[in-house]
Amino acid sequence: MDLSILIEKSVLVVILFSVSLAVAAYSTYAERKIAAFLQDRYGPDRAGPWGLLQPLADGGKMFFKEEIIPNASDKFLFILGPCIFMTTALMTSAAIPWGKSLHLFGRDISLQVANLNIGILYIFAIVSIGVYGIMIGGWASNNKFALLGAIRASSQMISYELAMGMAIIALLLTSNSLSIRDIVDQQAGFHWNVFYQPLGFIIFLVCAFAECNRTPFDLPETETELVGGYHTEYSSMKLGLYLFAEYTNMFISSAVISCLYFGGYHFPFIDSLNLPQNVAAIISVFVLFAKVCFFIFFFMWIRWTLPRFRYDQLMRLGWQMLLPLAIVNVLITGAWLTYFK
Fold first, then answer.
1. pLDDT, position 100
2. 102 - beta bridge partners?
3. Predicted local confidence at residue 1, as pLDDT
């Protein structure tokens, strides 16, 4: 591999890793501020101006808390579980195009770690591995409540991944590509896929809530039933990795939704302007992050608005409603492309 390409990708990986962690950290701050706004209270306002240093205080608390590993646990798997979950959450960002190419040092630099021609399959594969992090964490604790939470989380993620996959198949039929950058570039202007796949978008969005264990799908962590879910026995930064991974998954899910259905880094009127390449690239990054921030806010808004489902309601929604709707959506899309386009 060319040394300059290696350096370019390494710098991009470091930046993306740092941004993902920063977004995950300040998503916890935004979560509490949005909850406070919806519930007519203040939220964090002691650590720094407007409470902006609260995530740093929480991180310091996590690092300095006592490290506890249960005697009856499988210690190797107990440590491995949160590592797998956090690693898979960060790896999914590699296939997402974060903006148009920059022109620096006499060459075009792609703002994407890996422009894979099977980018969607890569994301689904990595997300599927994340299930092992949850299952291992619950099983290695040797705690029946943690194990029950892990089983719930695993069955929930697997069942909703099926409907999500079928929703993606309908999108792939219209785009004829598995590359996320190709799908984003096809939506230049105002040709957003949400207008052509509204049902697919709704199914994908609901499944994203379930994949991220967000309310009303946070059954793996129900305090009234399972004490604290699959990470009941975890403390210190091991618990922090699980919590950070959940917010990182929400960030990446928002980015994927923006890229697949809302044009990614494209925006009407800006695309039609003849801006210099680097200016257009910087604006495109801000456009994508604005869309991501909107969906993160939407995730949090739903959490503090809707009550939690019962577990039988959750599984019935996934298997008896979303999956059949996703299959019907694929059939309608295929028929429309075959006979009317």
1. 86
2. 109
3. 55
**Residues 41, 245, 214, 52, Cα dihedral to 10°:** 10
Per-position DSSP letters for 163-207, written without gaps between them: HHHHHHHHHHHHH----HHHHHHTTTTT--GGGT-HHHHHHHHHH
102: three-class secondary structure by DSSP = strand
User: Tens digits of per-residue pLDDT, 215-249?
Assistant: 788 777 766 665 677 888 888 888 888 888 889 99
- Residue 164's closest CA among 330, 331, 332? 330
Return the pLDDT at 231: 80
Question: Which tokens is 45 given?
Answer: 């306002």
Residues of the chain with pLDDT under 70: 1, 222-227, 271, 341
Beta-bridge mates of residue 109: 102
Q: How far is CA 49 from CA 24, 44, 52, 117, 134, in A?
A: 20, 10, 6, 45, 36
AA identity, residue 94: A
The pLDDT assigned to 277 comes to 83
Q: Would you say 149 and 230 are in contact if contact means Cβ atoms under 8 Å apart?
A: yes
Which H helix or E strand runs over 311?
helix 311-316
For CA atoms 112, 114, 119, 121, the dihedral sign is: negative
Other beta carbons less than 10 A from residue 339's beta carbon = 7
Q: What is the pTM of this model?
A: 0.90
Burial label, 196 (beta-carbon count in 10 A; 0-12, 13-18, 19+): middle
Identify the DSSP state of 121. H
**What are the residues facing 107 on neighbouring strands?**
104
Give the whole-angstrom CA distance, residue 290 versus residue 35: 20
Q: What is the per-residue burial (b if ≥16 Cβ within 10 Å, else e) of 13-47?
A: eeebeeebbebbbbbbbbbbbbebeeeeeebbeee
The amino acid at 148:
L
Q: Domain residues for 78?
A: 3-339
Give the total number of structural domains in the chain.
1
Phi, psi of 107 (to 5 degrees): -150, 155
